[in-house]
Amino acid sequence: MNEEFLKISQIINEALKNKKPIVALESTIITHGLPYPVNLEVAKACQNIAIENGAIPATIGIIDGVAKIGLDDDEIDFLAKNSNRCFKASTKDLGFCYANKLNAGTTVAATLFLARKSKIDCFATGGIGGVHRNAEKTFDISADIHALSSYGGVVVCAGCKSILDIAKTIEILETYEIPVYGYKTEEFPAFYSRKSSFKLQLKANDVEEIAKAYVFNEKLGLTSSILVVNPINEDDEIPYEQVSKIIDKAILELEEKGIIGKEVTPFLLERLSNLSSGKTLNANKSLIYNNVAVASKIANEINKIKLIKLDN
Ligand code: PSU
Ligand code: MN
């Protein structure tokens, strides 16, 4: 790919050449998901956790209009400190960012697209976008769903926040042919909480199982990603009843203010953090770290399988 359109850092280029396990990381969480300086702390910690778990981190974002796979420390620092001047880029916005030389965080949808374009198998995030509450009226369904059905790879998340309509999100994941694997759980996790009371159809007890299923699906030519839902650690979870009250309040405010479109998710994330006096931040950090660790292990397993297949 021409450097003018997609930049791949030297570290990632070498990792790809030497067939090392790589984990992609998104950057909307840096620009629109977490406040400074927590965003910077989390972005850096995620990279270290990937390395500790034997994978090479590739944080993906847009600098001066061009998407970069493997942002360096200065670039991450820049996005974290200037988040209020950064764009939130979904896949549909990539050309716009290029034409206007924007700096941007990439959503799950855009990050997944860019990671797959660069032949990266695994991607870790906090929570995916999905079907918003009242979607029957607003039609607000995240492009993340479409991306997950289109670009392949393995995406590890902690489910979705109940700012979304979890039941409808699960239904649409099924409609879009996206396999959802509970990692050591039979229940769809609700981000801050381990449980949502919604049962999953697929469960994986170890990372090998996920890697096997992924390589198989890919060989078969299925286009959808495998979505791994990994519950937050017990010690860090916030019970569903506690968060659901502040979520209801934040959603009421959203409706009163008439906020729609791409502003919805950032608004709700910020309100939740304020309404809980930052209590949700700890949980948020913990679950992302957990997801990066699992994604790194899956990346290693996928590599093992692919290398064995190449040897034979
Ligand atoms: N959910 C979270 N934290 C986030 C996001 C979602 O718990 O930071 C971000 C992700 O980058 C996701 C995006 O891809 O919000 C979804 O935005 P939208 O609903 O506008 O598609
Ligand atoms: Mn939306």
Describe it.
The chain is α/β, with parallel strands linked by helices and 312 residues long. The chain has one domain (6-311): Indigoidine synthase domain (Indigoidine synthase fold, 3-Layer(aba) Sandwich). Helix content is 49%, strand content 14%. It has 13 helices and eleven strands. Strands 1, 2, 3, 4, 5, 6, 7, 8, 9, 10 and 11 form an eleven-stranded mixed sheet that branches. Helix 3 (38-52) packs parallel to helix 13 and helix 10 crosses helix 13. The chain is globular. Bound molecules: pseudouridine-5'-monophosphate (PSU) and manganese (II) ion (MN). Pseudouridine-5'-monophosphate is lined by residues 26, 28-29, 33, 107-109, 126-127, 129, 142-144, 161, 191, 262, 265, 269.
Please give a handful of descriptors for the protein shown.
alpha/beta, binds manganese (II) ion, 14% strand, single chain, 312 residues, Indigoidine synthase fold, binds pseudouridine-5'-monophosphate
Task: Describe the structure concisely for a colleague.
The protein has 312 residues and is α/β, with parallel strands linked by helices.
Query: Number of DSSP strands?
Result: 11
| Uncertain residue segments | none
Largest sheet: 11 strands, mixed
Q: Total domains, how many?
A: 1
| SSE-based structural type | alpha/beta
**How big a fraction of the residues is strand?**
5-15%
Terminal CA distance: 29 Å
List the ligand species.
pseudouridine-5'-monophosphate, manganese (II) ion
CATH class: Alpha Beta
Radius of gyration, taken over Cα atoms and rounded to an integer in Å: 18 Å
CATH topology, which one? Answer: Indigoidine synthase fold
Report mean pLDDT, rounded to a whole number. Answer: 95
Helical coverage, percent range: 40-55%
Query: What is the approximate shape?
Result: globular
Using the 3D structure, state the CATH architecture. 3-Layer(aba) Sandwich
Order of helices and strands: EHEHHEEHEHEHEHHEHEEHEHHH
- CATH homologous superfamily annotation: Indigoidine synthase domain
